[in-house]
Amino acid sequence: MPVATIPPPVVMEVLYSTLERRSGKLNSAFQFASLSQDLYELYPAIKNTLEEFRNLKENWDGYGAVVIEGETIENVYTFLHGAFPFILSKLKENEIEPTPLGTIILGWANKSGMKISVEIGSSAYNYFIRRPEATIYSSPEIKISSILPEDLTTAFLSI
């Protein structure tokens, strides 16, 4: 599967400029702020939600759920740092959920019915994309890195 590597900040600025002209989906103010600040300073609710998961104990759901490992939370940060900043801006804290299996699910949706769900664990992640025309794609497990698969990057551009 082809992958899209995340370029350095100077290249990102040019990329965002180009994407903004083509799609109208990017916000210039956010674009430049995100290049100079930690993304989590801009979105403290996301960081706070993830950090709350560190406090979950064994059986936190009352049905035998396992603890969310610190490594899993760090992997969510790695994934989000690899995602385009405007994707982080569309992630709401109520779309970040722990699972009983010790993974964390991140979700995005748009008004036209496109949905993306990414499940991140201690060593890998996978994702699910549902397009409005009912096309569904589910990925195999992918090793955690700041490199996003091309089809996931393309789907994010539609959100």
Give a written overview of the molecule:
The strands form two sheets. Strands 2, 3, 4, 5, 6 and 7 form a six-stranded antiparallel β-sheet that branches. A two-stranded antiparallel sheet has the order 1-8. It has 159 residues and is of the alpha+beta class. Helix 1 runs antiparallel to helix 2. The protein starts with a strand and ends with a helix. The protein has helices at 9-23, 28-36, 39-42, 44-53, 70-82, 85-89, 150-157, and strands at 3-4, 96-98, 104-109, 115-120, 124-130, 136-138, 142-143, 148-149. Strand 5 and strand 6 form a beta hairpin. The protein is globular. It has one domain.
Q: What percent of the residues sit in helical stretches (DSSP H or I)?
A: 40-55%
Number of domains: 1
Regions with little confidence, pLDDT below 50 for 5+ residues:
1-37
N-end to C-end Cα span: 21 Å
Class from secondary-structure proportions: alpha+beta
Q: Element order, helices and strands?
A: EHHHHHHEEEEEEEH
Shape: globular
Q: Characterize the largest beta sheet: strand count, sense, and whether it forms a barrel.
A: 6 strands, antiparallel
Number of strands: 8
pLDDT averaged over residues: 76
What is the strand content? 15-25%
Tell me the number of helical segments per DSSP (H or I, 4 or more residues long): 7
Radius of gyration from the alpha-carbon trace, in angstroms:
16 Å
